[in-house]
Structure formats: C-alpha cells, structure tokens
C-alpha cells in the first residue's frame, strides 16, 4: 500500500498479528477457577514496562480499585491507553506509573475540571506521547481484536492529531478515497470492571459498553474486577448476555464498589464530593501526598479506601443517587 | 421582557438550530442544555446521542459525564462508542457541538496544547471524540465566548478539523464529503462560513453588540453579511423551560 | 495502496461510503410508529433489482416469513447475500427472486442435504456469482456498518475463493504482510427476525447474533420481523439489551413463528419433518409447484402457512422440542 | 473385543487428537461427535466452538445445524460469527475439522464445484466458514472416506487452503504463520504432512488395511513412514460412550 502521509507519533505496541497469535496460542483455554485477590492479580499480570489498558469511560464503570493496587505495588514505566482517561489517569499520574501514553482524552475530568497532577506529569517531559482520537483508539483495539494489523477509518485526516499520531494515510483500492489507517493496539494487560462474572471469567455488565469489548479482546492478559461473583449456572442460563468469554480472561477479582468514586450503572452514582476532594488536594503537593497516603498507600486494600470514605452508608447514598430516590426516611445512615 | 444572561442567550440560540427529527451528538454542559431545551420546545423528536454509547435517553437531569448513567436513562439503547461513532461515520448524525481552547477562521479547533506542542505552556485533554464527531457529523457547531485569545489567527495545534485551510482543502483531505463547520455561536454574535472561501462570517449580532465589538474580540479578520440582523433574544417561554426544567440546579446557566 | 492481486468476481454493491452517507443523511430519524403488515413492508421496501440481505444462520432465527412474502409479491432480479443461506435461499430460488449472489454458503441445508431447486438454479447460468467466505461477508457488512469502503482480513488468501471474489490483496503499511481487502457491502434492504421489538424499531433477540448486527447496520433499509411487539417502556427499562437501535429501522412487523420451520432460540425448534418435506418435494418439479402453491402462493399470509402445517398445536410441540421437554401429558395436542 | 464400524473408528481416532484444554471449531456430524467423545473421555476441558457464535456449550445432543439452539445450550457465551472468527484470527483456536468433495496432496479442499467452475457439473455450497477456519485455526484436520474421487491429483476448485502448493507456498501466501493441515483421518489410514514438501504422508494404517489399499484409493502418490503402525482400534469404553452418550440416535455412526 502506498503511503501518502505518515504521522510522526510513536507506536507503543507491536501491530504484528502473528506475534499476538504466537502469544495467544500458548494461553491456557482451560475453564478453571480464576478467582484471586486483586493484589495477587496485579502482582501476577502487571509487569513493569507493560502496556496497560483500563476499561470504562472517564469515571464510569472504571476499574478504580485496579489503579489503586497498581500504585500500591509501585508498578513503573507502563504504557497507557488514554481513551477518555480521567480519574484512572489521575491516579496513575499520582504514582507516575506510566512513562508513555496514547492520548485521546487525558488530564481532564470532563466538566469537573483539569487534574493538576496529570497535567504537570504530562508537561514534565517524562512521558512520551502519541496523539489519537477516542474512536481511533477503539478502532486500534478492534484491529487487534480482529487479528489484523490495522483498520481504516475516516477521521483524523487533515489535522495535527493525525500528524502527531502513528497513523498513515493511503488510498482505498476500491474507491480511490484517502483513508487513515491505524495500527492494531494490543495491551499487555487490561482491567475491565463489570457487574457479574463467574469464576472462570465469563463476564457481563449493564449500561454502555464504551470500548471495553474491543479492549478485552485486544489484550494479551485480561483481569476482570466485578461487583459480585455469580455461579456459572447463572451465566449459562442466559449465555447471550455474556459479553466477555472466559477464555480471554486471566483473573477474576471480586471487588464490591470497585468503580468508586465513579459511577457503576444500576449500582451507584459517582461521588462528586470525593472527586472534588481529589481535584482540590492535587493543587497542594504536600496535602496531596498525605491524601494519597490516607487513601491509597496506607490502605491494605480497596475495601479500606471505601471504609475511609463513608463505607456502606455512603454507598447506600450513592445508590439512591443512581436511582434518583430522593426523600423518604428508610435509610438509617442518611 | 425577562432579563437573561449571555449563557442563556447562547443556549437558546443553539437550541433553535436543532430542527425536529434531527440527530445530535453532544457532550455535557451548554450543548447538552441546548439539546434538552430544543427537545422541550421546537424539537420533541430530537435524538440525542452521547459518544460513550447512550442513544436517545429521556434525560432526567444534566449528565455530569458523557458516559454517566443519565446518558442512557430510559434510552432506546445503551450501546458502545463503536455504535455511536460508526453511526456518525455512516452519516446518521446531523449535528454536533464542540468546543476548544482556540478556534481559527476556518472553524478548526485546538484542544491539545497551548504553546509549542513539544513543550506546551498548558497540556489540554486532546481530541477525545471531538475530531471524530467533527469529521463525521454533517454540521458541526461551536458555542464559545467571543474572546481574542480563543479566536486566533493561528492555532497552536489543529486538533479537530473545521474547513482546514478553507476553499476545497477539506474536500481534498479524505474526510467524508459535504460535512463541516456550520455555525459558531458566541455571546456576541452568530457566525457561519462563507461558502467558497469557508471563512468565518458574522450573520447576526446578539442584542447590544456591534460588529466592531465582535471584530475587536476576534484575533482574525471576520467576514460579515452586509446587513446584520439582531439575533432574536430568548423568549419568556424558552427561559422558563431552560431554568425550570433543563437546568434547575443552574449548573450551566449560573445563578 | 498497491494492489498485489485482484479477484475477478463481480462486486454487486457500491462500496463508496460517501454515497451511503448521502442516503443515510436523508433517512428519517424520527421515533415514530413503524409497525405495519409484512406484506406492506415488502411492498414498500423491496424493489425489483434491489440487493437483499436475510438475517440469521441457515434455518436459525431466519426471517422465513419475509422470504415467503417476497415470493408472493413476485419480486425479481434481486441481489442476495448468501452467507449460510439455506432454507431462505431454497425459498428465494423457488421463486427465482434473485439473479446475482454473493456466495459464502449456498444450496445446502447443512447436514440435511442439498436443495435441488437452489442447485439447479445456480447451475442454470441465470445467476451471476461472486465467491466469498462466511466471515468475509460478515467483514464486508461490518465495513459498511463502520462507514469505510473496505476492511482487511487474513483468510481467503492463496485460494480460488479469493480469485473468484471481488477482494484484492495488498501489503499492510505497518507490517509489510499481505492482507485480503474486502469491499463494503450495503444491502438495499434487509430483514432480521428477533424476539422482541417496540413500535419504533428498537429490537433485541436471544441466542447467537450470527452477523445480524453487521447486516442491520450496513443496510440502507431494514425491516424487523418479531415474535412479539413490546412497549417502548419494556425496552427502555434495559437499554443495554437493545441490539438494534430504532433509527436504522424502517418497518416493524409482528410475525409470530416467523422463523418457522427453522429454530427460534428459547421459542421453538426447527420442524425437521417439514424441512425434509421441502427437500423431497423439490425433486419432482410438478409436486414442488403444488407444494409451493399450497404453502406460499396460495396463502394470504404467513399465518395461513403455519395453520396449514400444524398451527398452534405443532408450535407447542416444537416449543417442547426446543426446551427438550419429553414425556408428561400436559399438552392436549400431542 | 466389540466390533465397530469404520465411522466409529474414524470418530474415535479423531477424538484422540484433541488433547485436554484445547479449543476446537467444529461443524455438525462426525467432527462434532469426535469433539463430544473427546470431552467425555480424555479431554473434559475441551472447548467446543461453533462458527455461528456458540462458545463452550454443554451439548445435550448432536446439533442439527451449526447455529441451532444446542450449539449454545448452557454455553459460556452465545456470541456472533465475529466473536468466533475473530477469536480464531487472534490464534485462540487450536483445531478445526473440515470436509470437502475433493482433497489434494497438500490438504487443500474443494467444496465449491465439481467440473469447470463456470459450468459446473455440480454446484456445491462453497466455502461457508471453512476457508476462514482453515486459515486461522492452528491445526486443520479432515475426516473423510478414502476414495479416489475424493483424493484427487488436481482439485476442480481450491476453496479452502491446505498447504497450497506445498513447500513454503503457504508461508508466502499472507495467511497467518504456522497454521495449516495437521491430520487426515480416513476409514483406512491416518495421514499427516511431510514437514518440508508438505505432501500428504501415511503415518498409520487402520486395522485390516494395507498401504497399497490406501494408495489404490487415492488419486495421487502418497508419501509414507517407513514403518507403519496400526491405528489403535476403539476401546470398549470409547465405543460405549460414543454409542450411548454421544450419538444414541445413531445419526452419525449409523445402526
């Protein structure tokens, strides 16, 4: 294919599908009990230098607990897929866990404002950056999920987003139209947070899928965090509801409220007060250190973080907020 | 007549652009308020889509995030980013509202960096889905304050395509045909783009503003219609709906 | 892109995404009542010469009723996507409704044997043929669904299936590997059979998806046949279960047992006796004419066909077969 | 020892190829019987996948169709053709069983047409998913009767890739690396492919057959191991399970 234009951005993940195939060939397909603690899963599947994918969108159905654990275990030099990375990136930036990033949406928390810590880290020169769009990262993951080295798309063209990406432009052999071709992106390890999974890794969630199915299928290792484990029988009763099949999954970690302080559809709404506290604390490096100590490094696990931030009572409030239940007097904690 | 603030004026102006039965890809904040207002006034059948996957929700309140539960509350479908973006790519989405730290005379947007890219003064979020929406949706609109630091001669970084370098440059870029920037709505005026040069052109002035004031708050030379009508002010009905039903918490329109 | 090799098979559908965009731009997005009779839907949305897509796989969740109606209305010169086309193709061949076909799997009814009628029609020289694979047709539909003119894939290469297809081979600009590029396929009109839909067209089904979502999104016009209409409230309660969003749908036709004599998951199993009758009757042209008269042309609608082949009683039996309920004595008709 | 028929012999031989924990993409009929038998004997953790979307069902009985309800009965997932084929393309599927009207010495298959393509004597179904499975799955196997009209010097049509023209031809074709035909199981013998030439090679003879008989029923010259062991006959256990649990209706194995 004749390359008409070529972005100058780095490509952090090898798009060669035969190399990915050689990896997947030796990955176990046995339907075995894969439940383990999140700390064990991070220890086992996240290596310094790995390319990391985090599911969800911003602070919605995001495996926040996994990000905390990555910090606690002081993982370093990760690559990171920054597709609407908001609170997850804020955490990972606080630990300087990554040193290269595919950017689609970063440093912001949407309408909540910019993360000072993420911004400063990206501006520090310590992080290698490649520019993309949200959909480009979806499509790159989809290419890997399909076992092809690239896919064509029609955005990015004509912009500096393209110039600073690793995409190329080439002519379609059927229509002669110029296309952007984006290389497959295969994270070494990804985390996806779901509502329910069985011990083998069959997983399902409610609400929007964002790019989680592309991410799950593209990733060499996949860790599922779930609000609750269910028996395989529950999954097998409605197999059309399974979105992630067990054979692509390496570990299943039951982490109730694992998306806090983000939103988990039909479970709990985001804790805007606590997210605001993050943004505020970041502005003062010293206060932020204490805050991180209190909320991440000083916690044995994510359950402690939940307990320190209101525990079950607060979760009940956020559940009411999710379902827009106002008033009444049925909750002892409210 | 009720008094109104400039944000209210912009939202009402934007809402009026959304004809009944159109589809619109929106984010949070003012664009979402405009879409909700349109649904409650002239466009009951307006279809709202959110890039993370929400299609046609009954928005119970303003979402905080483009992917929070409200964006697919009682929706027709809670799909994926692929569902939304491929629908946009196929030509199903008529409008989108975007923003940016900088905009140039061709409607190109910068949301990546202020200052030199390699050592930015401020690193901004990047494209997100903006580049995709602007590439795919038929008519891209921007709501932004009229400000010399926003309306610049040259972007520090071209994140999201407008008419690129004007003329036929977008047509020749490989981007989908016949889509591009449509209207720019500021606190002072409404602009479109002159059909041949694709340069930004003032087509109406908001009540109380003159063309010169708009030009003074713009870093490049604006084209203009010979006769500039006044952008119609919000009606009492529009204001009441906006304040009482769309944004009762005054999160976007302020107090 | 440099074309290394090029199949000689015809491409029956224009892969230009800008032409498809111009069409979709003017398609109504209004959430209105789209329910209508199947005869009206076929009359309105199937034009002689159109390229036709039929959902399901073989005789599984296949819109059989739609195929009958196409015969009754004597539609001609259709193009047809033959991706595991079994009983559907048998019907359409009986009416010589198509004159060009993208072949992946045709003329057979899987383990049940070959359809004499489909085979003879394909051998007659009256039908223009292009060869593909099942996955190639999925990927071609997916290209159209993504609004791109082609997608790359890694099968077909090195075979005559490739040579007689409309695919091209080109080198990947990232890995230098040879890829098959397949052109987008946008049917003019497609039919998909589902369990439930609301009057706007929001639709959902159980069991495997086959390539129905790609087909639905690729098609210019889409007619949903459903086992039952449900209220929009039922859909809106679980929007993550919606697989087909209303805005791509043109018509919704409630056709109970609309997949008979095929299988509809969790509803009824295939009627193997009746399918065998089809295969047997086909062997004698005269007997087949009478059979078609009795079962299609002489029926006012699909309900009459069901009634002539056992009606509700038979459907109850097939439901028991689907759920593997043997024995007992609860069914008056058994 | 219990007597058995040749179909039973083939199914048992095929089942023994499927080691525990492997993944296999199968169709209906004998391959499915072999996979089910393997699950009930040496490979309790064998993962069965059907191209229409069924993943790891608890098969209650032999499916009639690759897409019928049995193929996703109590399954881990009822996915799509895309789910299955993209899993195959990524290298997750170890084995597949395919068939065809003709096979050549490199394991290429014809299921498209007998006679000239443009005016066929018999038009056959075409590739279906066979070409995809054979391209993607690591080890492709064939179960077929040993017959001169099936084992041909030259295919009327090359539908599905084996080792193409042998040697490095498949490697250079662009197909995924290191995948290809593995074993051919007939009523008379088991064949593999000689590593360099990629030509079909007899590696064991079924009880009661000689190499000459196999060669007589083959339209091309077969390679052979110097010493040809006898393919182990089915055990009583295997036969009992095959007859009582896998195919009690004797649909595949006959009466």
List the keywords.
A: 334 residues, alpha/beta, four-stranded antiparallel β-sheet, 13 helices, B: 255 residues, Glutaconate Coenzyme A-transferase, eight-stranded mixed β-sheet, 14 strands
Report a brief summary of the structure.
Chain A is an alpha/beta fold. Chain A has helices at residues 17-25, 38-45, 64-72, 87-94, 116-123, 134-146, 160-163, 212-218, 232-237, 272-281, 285-297, 302-308, 311-322; strands at 3-6, 51-54, 78-82, 98-103, 128-131, 150-153, 168-171, 178-183, 189-197, 203-204, 221-229, 251-254. Chain A has one domain: Glutaconate Coenzyme A-transferase, CATH 3.40.1080.10.
Question: What do you see in this structure?
Answer:
The complex is a heterotetramer, with 2 copies of chain A (334 residues) and 2 copies of chain B (255 residues). The mean pLDDT of chain A is 96. Chain A is globular and about 60 Å long. Chain A starts with a strand and ends in a 12-residue tail after the last helix. Chain A has 334 residues and is an alpha/beta fold. Chain A is 34% helix and 18% strand. Chain A has helices spanning 17-25, 38-45, 64-72, 87-94, 116-123, 134-146, 160-163, 212-218, 232-237, 272-281, 285-297, 302-308, 311-322; strands spanning 3-6, 51-54, 78-82, 98-103, 128-131, 150-153, 168-171, 178-183, 189-197, 203-204, 221-229, 251-254. In chain A, strand 2 (51-54), helix 3 and strand 3 form a beta-alpha-beta unit. Chain A has a single domain (3-265), classed as Glutaconate Coenzyme A-transferase (3-Layer(aba) Sandwich), CATH 3.40.1080.10. In chain A, the strands form 2 sheets. In chain A, strands 2, 3, 4, 5, 9, 10, 11 and 12 form an 8-stranded mixed sheet that branches. Chain A has a 4-stranded antiparallel sheet with strand order 1-7-8-6, with helices on one face. With 255 residues, chain B is an alpha/beta fold. Chain B has one domain (6-145, 155-182, 235-246): Glutaconate Coenzyme A-transferase, CATH 3.40.1080. Chain B has 6 helices and 14 strands. In chain B, the strands form 4 sheets. Chain B has an 8-stranded mixed sheet with strand order 2-1-5-10-11-12-13-14, sandwiched between helices. A two-stranded antiparallel sheet of chain B has the order 3-4. Chain B has a two-stranded antiparallel ribbon with strand order 6-7. In chain B, helix 1 packs across helix 2 (30-40) and helix 2 (30-40) packs across helix 6. Chain B starts with 5 loop residues before the first helix and ends in a 9-residue tail after the last helix. In chain B, 64% of the residues are buried. The mean pLDDT of chain B is 97.
